[in-house]
Amino acid sequence: MMLRQYVEAFVDRAADRIDAFNRAANPVYTQAAVEPAIQAEVDALLHNALFRDREAHRAEFAANDEYIHLARGLPSALIGRIRREVDISQATRSVGFWHRSAGSVGYRCLQASAPYTTAVYRSQVMLDWLSALTGKPMLCRDDYDDHACTFYVYTKPGDHMGFHYDICGCEDGAAYSLIIGVIDESTQQLLVELHRNDPARKQAHRISTTPGTLIAFSGAKLWHGVSRLGHDERRVTLGLAYVTTSHRPPFRKLVKVTADTLFHFGLGGVIKSYARRAPGR
Question: How many Å apart are CA 167 and CA 70, to the nearest integer?
């Protein structure tokens, strides 16, 4: 027991140091506050869109093992405001060889440059809807967690995402994800497998994330990926991540921050910052 506690403490400290490196390597200064008028506007738009069929949504979510796809989940007025905040030049490119090729704009950056997007993530209306959907109290992730609220940017031919479960550093069943369609000028699709471990119920879906599409799911249950982007195409989605508890087991925490370093906001941020400072750029 003592050895296990020692190892977990060591792993926890290692994860904290890697996380600190990520933030230092790619320093982004956040602006935590959202103007009350913007938050009120976003809350009103979300309430009108999400609470009309709350009980039907809850039944469908449970029947699909904690997954729901709403083709017209969010109104065009709100998507239009979010779309105007997409700045593709801010995206940090990451390539995981056969697994992933895409760009990301993380939450720290969005807090300073995208007030409507930030307001959607922090909205109490969104939290209440997701809590009702799951039957669990939902919390936002920390302000410094880039994966809490992220634009995923696909702009180069072949950009894609291999099949995976969401790695959130949490215990199974404690993390939930939302995918929102923002820009879709492509043939690229979200690939989803439901009931993957139940051959009698297994389903495969290919989803075009047109603007306003809303998909909510348990990160530990949904096997999902993204098909390859074609030539002269562009696609941007907004990913939101929520949790039922702030506790993160040390080993899962280490896996998450290591993945952030290698594939998302750590080393990629260093390379990008050097490229911006290079002569002639």
Answer: 23
d(Cα 12, Cα 211) in Å, to the nearest integer? 39
* pLDDT 10s digits, 184-211: 999 999 999 999 888 889 999 999 999 9
Number of folded domains that form the chain: 1
Band the pLDDT of 100: cuts 50, 70, 90. Answer: confident
Cβ proximity of 42 and 149 under 8 Å: no
CATH of the domain at 196: 2.60.120.620
Q: Encoding tokens for residue 27? A: 């320093």
pTM score of the predicted model: 0.82
CB–CB of 78/46 below 8 Å?
A: yes
Residue span of the structural domain in which 197 resides: 2-277
DSSP string for residues in 168-218: -SS-TTSEEEEEEEEEEESS--EEEEESTT-TTT-EEEEE---TT-EEEEE
